[in-house]
Amino acid sequence: MADEKTLTTTQVDHEYGGSEIQVLEGLEAVRKRPGMYIGSTSESGLHHLVYEIVDNSIDEALAGYCDEIEVTVNADGTITVTDNGRGIPVDIQPQTGLPALEVVFTVLHAGGKFGGGGYKVSGGLHGVGASVVNALSEWLIARVYKNGQIYEMRFARGDITQHMKVVGATDRTGTSITFKPDPQMFDTTVYSYDTIHTRMQQQAFLNAGLQISTFDKREGQEQSDTMRYDGGIREYVEWLNQNKPPIHEDVIYMTGTKDDSSVEIAMQYNENYNETIVSFANDVRTPEGGMHEEGFKRALTTVLNAYGKKANLLKGEDKVSGEDCREGLTCVISVKLTEAQFEGQTKAKLGNSEIRTLVNNVVTDRLAEYMEENPKTARAILDKAMMASRAREAAKKARESVRRKTGLESGQMPDKLQDCNERDPSLCEIYIVEGDSAAGSAIGGRDSRFQAILSMWGKMLNVEKARADKIYGNDKLYPMIVALGAGIGDEFNIDKLRYHKIIIMADADVDGAHIRTLLLTFFFRYMRPLIEKGYVYSAVPPLFKLTRGKTVRVAYSETERDKISAELRGGNPNVKVDISRFKGLGEMDPHELWETTMDPESRTLRRITLDDAVAADQIFTVLMGEEVEPRRAWIEQNAKYAVNLDY
User: Which residue has the higher pLDDT, 391 or 460?
Assistant: First the structure.
């Protein structure tokens, strides 16, 4: 085996010349580095293909030429997106001498979104959407309904297989794109109807009066939905707050324009303690916020403090912080602008500084005016902010008190933590285990070099119903906060995290599921970056132990149990196979727990993801919140999926 010195010499001797420089022609670059264009080749990237095509139809709606869009998962798993807009141009594009339809699907950075007058406002920033989808599809068919005729082009992995030709007559206008994602490019090519439906519902909320229909035509999965919201983002806020009791009935709505930019904001406070701000730029979700959110937050804090002083509710130097002002707030921010500056093709954050000024001015003027005209609602909002401020102060005192009592300042770790020897967080993992018996097996079976064990006991606090001041000092949660080392809430600092794998190891039964839900609620509400960074996992312990003679196997489901049982019998029904069920982690000896659940070479872990924070927020509100009826309805609706409640 060559040592490092030998490898280095080999690299130096190899001449690095012009022949080493690759020039990727056409759409080849997309297939070479798909992640640069759609974020990833996982399930999220797969669905991104649909969104890129739909965004083009949305642009037609924004321009005032389209009011119906249909998105269909076809019986064979392919996707069709159809709109009744003007139809992609089919005349000759002057720069290339080719039909515009061909240019749109074969040339990167081509489209009507670069100041040529095609679109004033567009979510498609780089003009790569249609061509990227084409490059990453096994095949794609584009049909344009225009000028009384149906034009069609066909492609395979970005290459033209049928040049544009007229295939029929029509009395409608619009575009229909059907494509099959390329299995060579993606980890999976199976679409989730729910994921598509959620995104399309979002778009329907953002475009008042636009009708979007979704269809799933796969056998056994047939369903459809048609969405149209004439109230626009007002209805979006009401929908987001459907399981959260509001503290004022009406949704506060603000809008304003300057030059070619516009902003609309809808907001309503509820009795919960968490803020939900969902922002968009040109109908593109900006999960990492940006200038529009900054402008809103700054103005909201200024207006509430100014009103509090004027109404004599805030005395002297008293004031409420931005975090106080946003407790229990549900808000949708939607801005439209001609030259949107997104960070990257996946458009997670808006960078236009001028939109911050516009949003700030609109909120400052409109919200101040609303509060003057609606003093009862204004008082309810300010009372909530002032209560949040008092709770924040109480949390600070509780935090300081706990630090003194536990000796946290000196770096003392909780008694229930059996730490690992490694100090590099990227190499460390911590198992959070319920109960001393399970913890005992985990401690006995672990690899102490990099695996830490934290034992939890008793009933955990449901943080969905508690403020931060109740969490500090809680004998179940605080030891975990100390062990992880990164703080919580607004003080959370992921750079101080002591483990990059946080593994919830609970029994495979209803009680274990409840513990997992409580822990995930806590992480979601107070340590969300843990989930966003992919640091949180759920261990998957086996359900069954199968023994034939000296051969021992484990199964993680009833189906796997039956399969393994048949294998052990070898087709002989007279062979006895002993099957026992693991009733809990505490019943497994350390060796069994290591081999089945903790050994990195053989274990199964489920990573907890946050693909849609809005959906996650709603699920946690339903499952762990005060309202009983939504929880009962959710359980009844999803009971069909619980084939075996113990699994």
Answer: 391
